[in-house]
Amino acid sequence: MNEMIKIAVVGIGRWGVHLLRNFLEHPQAEVKAVVDPSSERLAEIKQQYHLDDTVLLTTEWQALQQMEDLEAVAIATPASTHYSLISDALRWGYHVLAEKPLTLNPNECQELCQLAEQQKRQLMVDHTYLFHPAVERGKAVVQAGQLGDLRYGYAARTHLGPVRQDVDTLWDLAIHDIAIFNTWLNQVPIKVEAKGKVWLQPGLSDLVWVTLTYPNDFQVYIHLCWLNSDKQRRLGIAGSRGSLIFDEMSPTSGLTLLHGEFEQRENKFIPTNQKQEVLEIEKAEPLKAVCNSFIHCILNNLPSETSSGWVGTELVQILSALTESLNQDGKCVSV
């Protein structure tokens, strides 16, 4: 018989409810508790998912400390609460899956990773895109050299809301694209720059332009905005032999390889070998893969190769450097 991991889901808002659904459906997970500050929300969830009385529904986080058979918690609360909740959970002896970002402070992230190692517990961050079939296939394309010499990367992540009140658009949106570029390139930026505009809430940028510089001077440019009704979820890398595009808004496959290069004839550059190749992508819910990976990490007591706490820390370090640049009107900052 398969070993069952007893888990609590903390925070059942817009994203937490999807974590709850996935763990309820998981063959090796048993949801033992749900925590949320709203008793009305807990009542809705109980009815929606037909939870029986063996599942503890509570507004009190501390109630989890008393649960003798609990083994893990999945935390989907505002980022500002992560450090204290994750720290508590690890000290109580629980494995932790945390919504991104791990925290808002790289020093706190490092402390939590070290605490997890001391406690011999797994700390994993829900960087869902790292489990997306298109991102996994894209990495294989880039790493195989199919694009030729890599020129530059670019991305646009825009929409009309939701507008966050706890973090700016940089912290809300950039982490997705940075995580994908880091994965495709198998590198992390060494320098960053960011410039922004504020319209809605003092101190919180609504529009941010990001520049990431990787080793060998490869650069990535990212456009982020949460008050643009032109919804875009598009990311690409251009190389000497073609471009790879991941477009979530595409009605067909989200991953396209655009072949094309230049042939030089005297002083002219002539486009050649141009064709479009739509890449086949496995149909799978990335969050389900996240939950599968978390359960696997617990059962084998091994850190996630894809999205460990240390991977989350690395991304928070990059965002912190970008914030420093943003506060200095685009000054180049080393990571």
From TrEMBL:
GO terms for molecular function: nucleotide binding. Residues 139-244 form the GFO/IDH/MocA-like oxidoreductase domain. It comes from the Bacteria. Transmembrane segments: none annotated. Residues 5-127 form the Gfo/Idh/MocA-like oxidoreductase N-terminal domain. Pfam families: GFO_IDH_MocA (PF01408), GFO_IDH_MocA_C3 (PF22725). PANTHER family: BILIVERDIN REDUCTASE A, GFO_IDH_MOCA-LIKE OXIDOREDUCTASE N-TERMINAL DOMAIN-CONTAINING PROTEIN. This is Gfo/Idh/MocA family oxidoreductase. The lineage of its organism: Bacteria, Bacillati, Cyanobacteriota, Cyanophyceae, Nostocales.
